[in-house]
Amino acid sequence: MQSSRAGLARVIRPALWLAAFLPVAPALATSCDAPAWPVVQQYIAAWNEHDVLAAGTTLDAQVSYFSTSAATTRQGSQVVLDVVKGLTGLIPDLRWRVLGTPVQACEQLAFEWEFSGTAQFPAQDGKPAASRPVSLRGASFVRVEHGRIVQLADYYNGLTMREQLAH
């Protein structure tokens, strides 16, 4: 029962977050200083170029980051950059693409995505080197202030990710 409540909370929380800013979208759109989408596009491009430094230029130093895998919110750009470095190192041909059209209300953005590639596992503990295709769909919620990502939340099936990345 506790597990299904946690799963439901993971689905409802982002929906409530999105619903909280959608009703004011017209008001925000007229006073928007810097839309979020161009910044998020730069962040995604940095992932696809496997450029950790470029990803860092899109992040506020104190960015708040939540991911399903960690199941907690962590602070600081280095946390996000460690994820970029780790996944692009493990999946050298990783591609991250946006599915559909993002939903935006000025500085806040929600979008569905898919990343895919081939995970490369080195020989370790008597196991031979191996490679395995990886494909994962998810959704992200982003808030941008002054041209930098200040809040980033990634939601996806953590079990699927762990299964695909198990060696």
Overview of this structure, please?
The chain is α+β, with helices and mostly antiparallel strands and 167 residues long. The chain has one domain: Nuclear Transport Factor 2, Chain: A (Roll), CATH 3.10.450.50. It has helices spanning 2-21, 25-30, 37-48, 52-56, 77-90, 158-165; strands at 59-67, 72-75, 95-105, 108-121, 130-145, 148-156. The model is unreliable at 18-30 (pLDDT under 50).
Which short descriptors sum up this protein?
signal; alpha+beta; Cyclase_SnoaL-like; 39% helix; Nuclear Transport Factor 2, Chain: A; 6 helices; 167 residues
Strand order of the largest sheet: 2-1-6-5-4-3
The largest sheet, given as strand count, sense and whether it forms a barrel, is: 6 strands, mixed
Beta percentage is 35-45%
The CATH C-level class name: Alpha Beta
Number of domains: 1
CATH topology value: Nuclear Transport Factor 2, Chain: A
- Strand and helix order: HHHHEEHEEEEH
Query: Averaged pLDDT, please?
Result: 86
State the helicity in percent bands. 25-40%
User: Number of DSSP strands?
Assistant: 6
Structural class: alpha+beta
Output the number of helix runs.
6
CATH architecture, by name, is Roll
Structural shape: elongated
Poorly predicted regions: 18-30
Distance between the termini: 30 Å
Keywords: Isomerase, Signal
GO molecular function, one term: isomerase activity
InterPro entries: Cyclase_SnoaL-like, NTF2-like_dom_sf
Pfam families: SnoaL
